[in-house]
Specification:
By secondary structure, this protein is of the alpha+beta class. The chain folds into 2 domains: 259 residues, SGNH hydrolase (Rossmann fold, 3-Layer(aba) Sandwich), CATH 3.40.50; 149 residues, Jelly Rolls. It is built from 6 helices and 19 strands. Strands 3, 6, 8, 9, 10, 12 and 14 form a 7-stranded antiparallel β-sheet that branches. Strands 4-5-13-7-11 form a 5-stranded antiparallel β-sheet, with no helix packed on it. It is globular.
Amino acid sequence: MSSVHQLAAVGLVGLHLFLCAAGASCSSADPRDTSLPDADASTADGGAPHTTASNGEPSDGGALTAGAPTSPSVEEGSPAVRFVGRFDRRDGAGPVASWPGARILARFEGTSVSVTLEEIAPEWMEGAPSEWDVAIDRVWQPKLVTTRGVHAYPLAVDLPHGPHEVELYKRSEAQNGYTRFLGFDFGGGKLLPPPPPSMRRIEIIGDSTPAAFGVEGVGFPDNVCPGVKHAAKWQNFHKSFGALLGSTLDAEVHGTVYSGKGIVKNIWRPDRETLPVVFLRANPLDPSSSWDFSWTPDVVVVMAGGNDFALGLPDENAGGPPSPDEFTSGYRAFVDTLRANYPDAHLVLSVSPSVKDTDPAGRHARTHISLTTSTIASERRAAGDARVHAFSPGVASPSELTGCDSHGNPELHLRLANEYATFVRRELGW
């Protein structure tokens, strides 16, 4: 079975060609599963207050800060909408969510709620538009498939009188559209103080495995999903091992993930915007949208490298894999960047469970990535940094790789979440 997955597109700032990570797997456990801890539905990052008028426009004049969310400065008890994840706030009209896993949470008093969103998805985005999960009072509703442009979307009507909670959760990746939040309309009701933030924070960084690429496409013959295989409808970060890990550990999760990206080389070789490049952005598709790192995680899981050693596209003449030394040097520089921005975080360097030494033949991808992560962790520890770890979950079995293009299924992501939870509990005492 092939481990090479292509996403092609012409981007906002020139040519962008995206591809799902070689051998990466994406699987899922249902985010609507009420057996998962409810606490995950109430985590947040303490973003700036953003109350809304009945027409859906910001009633605070749209005075949102540029770049990343502000530090938790919302006065306790103040009405506010809470934003979790990386939002680009430079435009006062409203914050823009591009990275998957972005969340918008609010508490309100009223009997109905709708939301006004602007979906931004240029024509090159074949798999667009964005898709969002919607929860009312922590019960997940049918997903919201956006429409390009500005639209109001009813979320709930005829609710009983009293306080309620609403949450929007971005399932899909940036290359399938990004969404500007323009406000909630509570139908004459009022905004209340938001759900409290979690005291724990986890960031997941990587390619298609942690992005949960193809997780909604389990069960098709030969693992070939109909139509555009990288479409938003087949993706769902909400079912990723990172999201499940956050639920298990009652932690807020940021998903800095992008299918097809590598540490030194992307699987689409002409694309030079690798994971370390887009990691610095509030919107991975916009080079001007720098992220200010005011939000800092306790734990960072890095799962990347499979694309570097994949069979490059459009063909090998566009550039083969990096040499082992080149890959290690690039990975080391990325860890330097992570440590500079997150001086106290535990950094967990991992190999994707679907990366194998035998695919592509002769490239020994798993060995090279594993040796790199263990070497860097050892170097860091020898230099006195005991919070850098080389830890990888077990290799995926074929029965766990039944999503689109042989990406992961719910069983894989649940297993990964459990393995990482055991590791994090041991290292951090959670």
